[in-house]
Amino acid sequence: MCRLLDVLLASLSRFLFAVHGVVTVWRVVAVKEEPLYWLLLTGVALLGVEMAVTLKCTRNAEWKWFSPMVFLYLSTVIPSIWFLELSLLQSKLPVNNSSGPELHPLARIPIAAAIVELEPENWVAGLEQTMLIVLVLGRWLMPKGDMSRDQLSQLLMVYVGLGADILDIFDTFKEPEVQTNQTVVYMGLGLFSWALMQFPLVLTQTQQGEPPQGGENCVARLPAPPVTSASCCSNEVWSLLLTVGLQDGPFLIYRLYLMLQEQVLNQLMIFFTCKNILIVLLELYRIFVVQCEQRFGDSELGRAAELSYRH
Fold first, then answer.
1. Can you state the angle between helices 267-310 and 235-243, rounded to 10 degrees?
2. Domain regions of the chain by residue span
């Protein structure tokens, strides 16, 4: 029964990713008027193969540290967002003021008429926002693997926060000083793609609870000798390092560049820059605290084990 439920959830989450991927690529084909862009669907087309391999090779229908499903979905959506944003940039340039192609066949369908008539900016913004919603819902629906419910809920909350921060990068494209600056748009899209690489990684910030050591059925055992930790950092530290390296650090540099080089000085830009500085400082402080506590705990454990062996 559990296996059947895992298969159902795996199919549902991949179907959700596939639907959004198809809609995004369809929009690219409609804007570019070139059928060759349907090749962007290669990523979501491989989701069926990926699901079969995952169900066959894993015990809980999900990989432990990396999600190939999310990676394949992003391999379709990220290039599509690039093409749409660059097309939007071209439409803003003085040499090209076209408003995009008319989608007459779909406009004849009453239900789709309002969607088809959306402005290109609204189309792109809608696809970007729904992409992050789909990432959260897809992670929620897919089998949780070896994660506990507490870890899954925490991961989903982290995803929501990451998604909101990532979407802020597109607001910088609307600043009058840089809205036609190709360098800024390329930098922003690069940071957007770089930050999304957090989603295929499954690093939760909670540790699995250790089994209770007490109880009536426990057998007295000699304490184990001190064991050297296999990893220098805990899951929480790795998660914080990834967040600093993939998102908060690059975003801070990007906003400082906009303020100092492009002279984008307004209340929101100053606020988000100060927020980025504060977040990076807090994350570095948290990493320092966790590492100090871990080293102190390891040293105390080693001393206790050594004293136990002497007695």
1. 160
2. 1-204, 231-311
Q: What does the block give as tokens for 75?
A: 């391999």
Residue with structure tokens 């007490």? 214
With cut-offs at 50, 70 and 90, classify the pLDDT of residue 19: very high
CB atoms within 10 A of CB 29: 17
Token pair 């340039």: residue: 93
Q: Please give the Cα distance from 195 to 83 (Å, whole number).
A: 18
* CA–CA distance, 271 with 255 (Å, rounded to integer): 10
Each residue of 234-267: pLDDT tens digit?
777 888 888 899 999 999 999 999 999 988 888 8
Which residues, other chains included, contact 303 with Cβ-Cβ below 8 Å and sequence gap of 6+?
Answer: none
Which residue would you say has higher pLDDT here, 269 or 58? 269
- Cβ(93)–Cβ(180) under 8 Å? yes
Q: Which two tokens stand for residue 81?
A: 């967002």
Burial state string for 174-211 with b = 16 or more CB within 10 A and e = fewer than 16? ebeebeebeebbebbbebbeebbbbbbebbbbeeeeee
Q: What is the pLDDT of residues 282-307, one digit of tens each?
A: 999 999 998 888 777 666 666 666 66
Which residues have CB under 8 Å from 219's CB, separation 6+?
A: none
Residue-wise DSSP of 105-174 = HHHTSHHHHHHHTS-HHHHHHHHHHHHHHHHHHHHHHS--TT--HHHHHHHHHHHHHHHHHHHHHHHGGG
Instruction: Dihedral sign for Cα 93, 94, 95, 96, please.
Output: positive
